[in-house]
Amino acid sequence: KQLETTTTKTNPNARIKYATAEDFLNDFTNSLRKGNDTNATALFKKTYRSLDMLLVDDIQFWSGKPQVQEEFFNTFNALTKANKQIVMTSDRYPNDIPDLQDRLKSRFEQGITSDIQKPDVQTKVGILRNMQEKNELDIPNDVLQLIGESIDGNVRTLEGAFHSFEAKIRFQNKPATIETAKIILEEINANKKPVITVERIQEVVADYFMQTVDDMKSSRRQSDIVGARHVAIYLTRTMTDMSLPQIGKAFGNRDHSSISHAFTKIEEQIEKDTRMKEMVQSLAEEISDG
User: For the Chromosomal replication initiator DnaA C-terminal domain, which residue ranges apply (predicted)?
Assistant: First the structure.
């Protein structure tokens, strides 16, 4: 959304559309449901193919959905052929999205791929300053600095803290001071680290790999399940104080040698594979953010 706002300021006449992957899927599905209404299909295509910039969030949502992948492939081709821009986000690299068509992967990787990490304090303060201006508020720099330094999560967490602070100012007539900011930060537990449990780790990893926790605990040996299981075991070993036998019990009563093997395998992959290292670091941050 920030990119959309910035681009609109630079080029007010630009035709820009932001949509989540689910929005695109829903719009596509609705056009199909209208059956023989060719106008509905034509309108859908016009909406997405006559843009100067298309922004699509969370494209991993299309995993295992061949029809919407086919439609986006055609949309992608139409826009790039017209020298228009497409910006996409995902919680993993294109090659790591399961059940994504190879031709989509190849096209996605023709562009610039960037691993976006959590913003540093300076960037967070800049984001807060932009939000302040957009909402026509006058918040002292030291207050913005405190909020930026205290929020350790992602941009969404930062935005939530800002809107809570804004509500205090607008609706409760609180002053835009350090004291008010401290009250907000205490209310949202900004400085309180969540307790990291094996259950939390299993849930985050299962969601990332699009598996279930039960799959990771099972004896199934499919490569995608094994990969998810090994990563979850590695993170459990590094992020908790659980012993190998305890971890084994949490992962379907596996013996300690199996847990040790899984840990060592991921440890070796992290040393050799930058992408694996980045993926594990990203999962660890998500787990820590609660």
Answer: 197-266
- DSSP H helices, 151-190, are 155-171, 178-187
Average pLDDT over every residue of 166-173? 90
Q: Residue 200: which H helix or E strand, with range? A: helix 198-208
Distance CA 159, CA 101 (A): 34
Q: Does the reported pTM lie above 0.70?
A: no
Distance CA 224, CA 212 (A): 11
Q: For residue 250, how many other CB atoms are within 10 A of its CB?
A: 22
Helix (H) or strand (E) holding 5, with range, is: helix 2-10
What is the C-alpha radius of gyration for the chain, rounded to an integer number of angstroms?
A: 23
- Residue 277, C-beta contacts closer than 8 angstroms, at least 6 positions apart: 270, 271
pLDDT of residue 160: 87
For residue 200, pLDDT over 80 is answered with yes
Q: Helix 274-289 vs helix 223-239: angle between axes, to the nearest 10 degrees? A: 60
Give the tens place of pLDDT for each residue, 16-29: 999 999 999 999 99
**What is the amino acid identity at position 50?**
S
Domains belonging to the chain, first-starting first, are 2-108 (3.40.50.300), 121-187 (1.10.8.60), 198-289 (1.10.1750.10)
Q: Give the pLDDT confidence of 215-228 residue by residue, as tens digits.
A: 999 999 999 899 99
Cα separations (Å) of 15 from 88, 104, 114, 170, 231? 17, 24, 24, 33, 42
pLDDT at 205: 95
